[in-house]
């Protein structure tokens, strides 16, 4: 009978492998490897639940194999039971420090082998079950969080006579840019968590508009210089709102800092001609540089009371070549390059 759970036996002795296989194969799927190098390849392909690992082997010994196993995040919690002879110079403390969970001494006692493997398998299944529950709960909390984020964003956007469609488009475009930047330049945007946070918090870019009076926010005509100066404060107002929110939550994570950076910096320009602080280049947080480009694209392709919506092609031309008001030097050149390569995907999402 082949079990639903699996064990990898690593030993340079065929006799030892045969003996252990005979004890375990009625309860588990059994994989074998005759040396450390082969063991790592078998693990990569089959993802065993438990490893029985001989200490003394030619080539890399069991201790080094264990070090390599623990470097791989997939196997960090995989139980490893060392196999050692009664006359081996085995260091139990060294094995435990490296991450081994137990050890078995040759010659084998079948009852001891089965009990130790069974106990470690039970522990692993319990831990795996808890990790699945935590992951599911985390997903639920993330959905709730994103719903709150979107609700906060709509509160600002609807005062500006906009709809949630702008926020949805912004989020899609930001997500496309962030994911593409991550794939092409992982040194710049190394983790999926960062991609997800930038995407999730992008709708909060204009949350500071809740602090702008209706007389200015809803004015149908051109703003005066004084009114425009007040309008521009929505960046700092939004950042302040989110900073206060972060402090109230007393969060142990720094995720909301991404939202603060987006709100504060999405009108900064790479050449330093933006606002509110006129910072330039990489002084502008990466999240704000990504959202700035997504925001300009969506503004160009959306209808306003003072203009019709531009086509995707026209908006691309303005961003990549400039029209006097919007210029390519306003944007991070690397993000601009990713934007150009994602043109078709962005068009399909709009």
Count of all domains:
2
CATH architecture of the largest domain: Orthogonal Bundle
**CATH level 1 class label of the largest domain:** Mainly Alpha
Topology as H/E string?
EHEHEHEHEHHHHHHHHHHH
Number of strands: 5
The proportion of strand residues reads 5-15%
Largest sheet: 5 strands, parallel
**Residue runs with pLDDT of under 50 for 5 or more positions:** none
State the distance separating the first and last CA atoms.
55 Å
Helix content: 55-70%
**Helical element count?**
15
Average pLDDT works out at: 86
Shape: elongated
Q: Largest sheet, order of strands side by side?
A: 2-1-3-4-5
CATH homologous superfamily placement of the largest domain: Hypothetical protein af1432
Radius of gyration: 29 Å
| CATH topological fold name of the largest domain | Hypothetical protein af1432
Structure classification: alpha/beta
């Amino acid at each position: 009978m082949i079990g639903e759970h699996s064990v990898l036996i690593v030993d340079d002795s065929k006799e030892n492998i045969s003996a252990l296989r005979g004890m375990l194969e009625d309860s588990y799927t059994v994989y074998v490897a005759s040396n450390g190098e082969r063991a790592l390849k078998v693990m990569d392909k089959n993802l065993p639940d438990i490893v029985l690992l001989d200490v003394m082997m030619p080539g890399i010994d069991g201790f080094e194999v264990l070090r390599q196993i623990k470097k791989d995040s997939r196997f960090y919690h995989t139980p490893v039971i060392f196999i050692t002879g009664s006359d081996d110079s085995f260091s139990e403390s060294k094995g435990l420090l490296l991450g081994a969970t137990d050890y078995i001494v040759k010659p084998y006692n079948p009852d001891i082998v089965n009990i130790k493997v069974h106990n470690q398998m039970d522990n692993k299944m319990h831990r795996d079950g808890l990790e699945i529950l935590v992951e599911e709960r985390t997903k639920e909390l993330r959905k709730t969080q994103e719903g709150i984020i979107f609700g906060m964003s709509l509160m600002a956007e609807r005062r500006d006579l906009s709809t949630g469609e702008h926020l949805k488009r912004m989020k899609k475009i930001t997500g496309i840019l962030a994911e593409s930047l991550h794939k092409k330049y992982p040194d710049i945007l190394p983790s999926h968590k960062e991609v997800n946070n930038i995407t999730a918090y992008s709708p909060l870019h204009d949350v500071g508009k809740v602090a702008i009076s209706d007389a200015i926010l809803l004015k149908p005509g051109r703003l005066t210089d004084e009114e425009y100066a007040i309008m521009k404060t929505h960046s700092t107002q939004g950042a302040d709102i989110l900073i206060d929110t972060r402090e109230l939550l007393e969060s142990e994570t720094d995720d909301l800092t991404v939202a603060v950076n987006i709100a504060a910096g999405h009108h900064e320009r790479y050449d330093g001609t933006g606002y509110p602080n006129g910072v330039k280049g990489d002084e502008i947080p990466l999240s704000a540089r990504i959202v700035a480009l997504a925001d300009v694209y969506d503004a160009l392709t959306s209808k306003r009371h003072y203009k019709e919506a531009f086509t995707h092609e026209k908006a691309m031309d303005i961003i990549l070549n400039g029209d006097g008001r919007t210029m390519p030097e306003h944007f991070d050149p690397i993000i601009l390059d990713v934007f150009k390569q994602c043109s078709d995907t962005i068009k399909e999402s709009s």
